[in-house]
Amino acid sequence: MRPGNRRLMAAGAVVMCTVMAIGCSSQSGDGGKTSSGKTTVTITYRDDGIGEKGVLYKWIKEVASTFPDKSIEIKPTPIQASEGDYFAKIALALKSKDTAPDIVTEDTFILNSDAAAGYLEPLDERLKGWKDWSNGSFIEAMKKGVTASDGKVYGVPYNTDSRGLWYNKDLFKKAGLPEDWKPKTWDEVLDAARAIKAKVPDVVPIWMNMGKATGEATSMQTYEMLLYGTGERLYDDASGKWVTKSQGITDALSFIETVNKEKLGPPLSKVLNGQAGNTASREYLPKGKLAISLDGSWIPGNYLDGGAAPWPEYKDVLGFAPMPTSKGQAPGSITLAGGWALSIPSNAKHKDAAWAFIQYALNKENTAKLVIASGNITVRADVSKDPAYTKMPFNEIATDYLKNAEFRPAQDKYPEVSTQIQAMVESVATGTSPADAASKYAQDVSRIVGADHTMEK
Amino acid sequence: MSSIAAAVPGRTRKNRTWIYFLLPSVAIMLLFFVYPILLTFFYSFTNLALTGESAKELKFIGIDNYTHMFKDPTVRTGIWNTIVFLLGSAVIGQQVLGFLIALLMKRKNKTFRRIIGTVVLAGWVTPEIVCALCLYSFFGDEGTLNAILGFVGAKGIAWLYTMPMFTVILANIWHGTAFSMLVFQAALDDVPSEIEEAAVVDGASRWQILIRITIPYIKDSITTNMMLVTLQTLGVFGLIYAMTGGGPGTATTTLPIFMYNQAFVNYQLGYGTAISLLLLLIGIVLSLFYIRSMKS
Description:
The complex is a heterodimer.
Chain A: H1 3-24, E1 39-44, E2 46-47, H2 55-66, E3 72-76, E4 79-80, H3 83-95, E5 103-107, H4 108-116, H5 124-128, H6 131-134, H7 140-144, E6 156-161, E7 163-168, H8 169-174, H9 186-199, E8 204-207, H10 216-229, E9 235-236, E10 241-245, H11 247-261, H12 268-271, H13 276-284, E11 290-296, H14 314-317, E12 318-321, E13 323-324, E14 333-336, E15 338-343, H15 351-361, H16 364-374, H17 381-384, H18 387-390, H19 395-401, E16 405-406, H20 414-429, H21 434-449, E17 454-456
Helix pairs in contact in A: 2-16, 10-11, 10-20, 20-21
Chain B: H1 2-7, H2 17-43, H3 53-56, H4 64-71, H5 73-105, H6 110-125, H7 128-139, H8 144-151, H9 159-162, H10 164-189, H11 193-201, H12 206-217, H13 219-234, H14 238-243, H15 255-265, H16 269-295
């Protein structure tokens, strides 16, 4: 054997051994029962990188400590992932009995899809025995979000949200813009951004999430807020078809194109990565480096004492303007509403214990704690009257926007279509023409839903 | 070969115990290699998805995934990016640089060889993901490169966004050059010094020696190395994924990234498997091409 070959062989052997060692090591499964005979109920949620400082982690810990049934131990099992990756990781975990948690936080956009895949347990029978569910404590409209197309309920909602334009009043003053800002059309939004760019240098005029890595935030906060503002919809309920070509799509994409062409948006290196949402809300906005942010109503949750980026002055500095329709047509402004729910996976090991905890965790007091800490809007009528909740700045105004709220299509294909939206938006943000991006979108959607389920307008 | 086999005890026709020794490895190959490939082949004709109804009820959809693949502009972009990445980082970058380093180190003193060798090897022994993070922070907006540029008074640029393919190619060259260097070092050590010395006596220039003697002599090593780095580079995923995520847009979306995105970001497992088979096919074709060129 030549010396070189021997060196190669040795290197190869090392590589093979490492690969096999990594491949063979497996995580030991959690039997669910601790040595003390307690039942361990695992809760999986998304950790956006801040670990034990996260609102959900702290809330789960707090609620678990007061949970009366001491034979049940609550264990947070977060998945640390970008918003885009979380749902794929959840789907993979839910597929198997070995990896499924006992409780999972589901975004309502994917709940229908996960239910259709058979990943989630219908809760109708259990809900019959829970008086909070039937005595009007939960706002009736919010139950729609957790009801799948088969008519069954697959989760208990714990929050909802609306979307609009957050703006920094200090920067607006510098640019000579009104502090009580209420744009009537998209052009007025762009004009404000242009004014900022001209008069306040080194500030990002307007931030919209535009990358694939920000996942659903790109689809919902950016594209759908624009598309629905043109009067178009993603899915035509009357014919049961997905709209793959319309003036609305072109207009929405043109808005994104304008923002990037005129350099009114954030640098691509900041907006195309998975941390973009946090960069905008936790860094740029509080530091006065961002003037307008098209984002969700939960943003102030970051600024509370103990939040991810405490900023006591936010009450006075920030404004929350409604997102106008494209040309100011009725109803004048638009918002999309989403929300999250607690669900029990079909593969969960301790469904009864999980259900007992959900009932406790989502009672009036505990839901209130969560929505106040996270800055979300409540789904419970009784919490919405709670003074601790109503005194939070912006809660009233964010709830008010819900009047014109639209919801994402309750279709099991929506999550797959949504990822095509993200690809389309990112491609426009990086220079593809709206027409090309839209035609690629049409092609991909038609593959996913089938050509006979698409239409052009 | 057969005469040697016959001479070794235990390898005769009558005594077939060697089959039993081979069985475990064959079984492992079948279970962990052939079976998944067959399964992948099967899934590529279905609408398998990660969520939604098709996650529950697998439907056979014939060659739809494949017909779509040929119509999908991102597949074309993916193939193009894969070729650019392959040629830039492996075939040209790693090979040429690896060869140059090996050539320059030849017959230099031991300490020199050891220091240079270690420096180059550092890139190779660093795990891919660590490499990616190092280079990400090197090319990042507030990264080392821009800091250096700022120090000399130049304005930094967003390297990962203005020239993403260039950065991932550079990253892969840094990561992989040591492999080619090792191969070429071994090959160059085998070139008999007598031939070269004779050429010098005959008045050949260094360039002539390199082109007429050294390279023809190590031709086989070059081809073997070419095949190995090609196959290694074809499958590079973590490096690109961590640095650019395949973006911006689709600027660095090579086929492995595209396959991952389709399967695990867009929930389209069936389509993802079809793309993985395309990748496998490209690998096989390239290997056959190299093997053939080695024989000729």
